Amino acid sequence: MLFDLAAHVAFRAAWGLPPYSSEESTNPPSDLLRNSFYAKMTDVEVILRFFALRHVDHYQRGMQGFLDLYMVRSRGFTSEDLSHLSTLFTETIELAAAIYGEAIFRPWSVKDGKWASSPQRAFADAVMVGLSRNLRHAALLRRRGQAVVDATKRLFEQHPNGTFTGRGNTKADVKERIGLYDEMLREIARS
Q: Rounded to two decimals, what is the model's pTM?
């Protein structure tokens, strides 16, 4: 399922990967194989992080250990569980793409006054988990997309550098960045 989801057009565009083609499964193009994000399966890891970090209260053993624990837990998932997770991911990535467009998962540079040139995993974690927690407000968040973008910039301006880009990877750090982003969305949904 993770490999299938990694082929989603909005996900691939967010991480600078070309659209998926069926030949890729048996004969990936050499330029794709030279892309370290793809070659090291970081694309699949980012999706796994999304699913695992939805349970951030249980975060332990650092990120890799936490992902390993989640994978062990996933062995017991039913086909209904997998279908739910697939739908959850698809709805969330499509909402993120609708709100942020080309700036999806790119941190706001307070110093430069613009979005970073490339996406960042820790920020993607906060965006994806936060949006997934607020899917019941998806239509409102889409309509108020510019308010979400503006509030995102303020998050970067109001918190220490590195808060949303993974300066720290302790449980407290991970919970803080997800919590701050989630609360920002809730405020927009309430207003």
A: 0.95
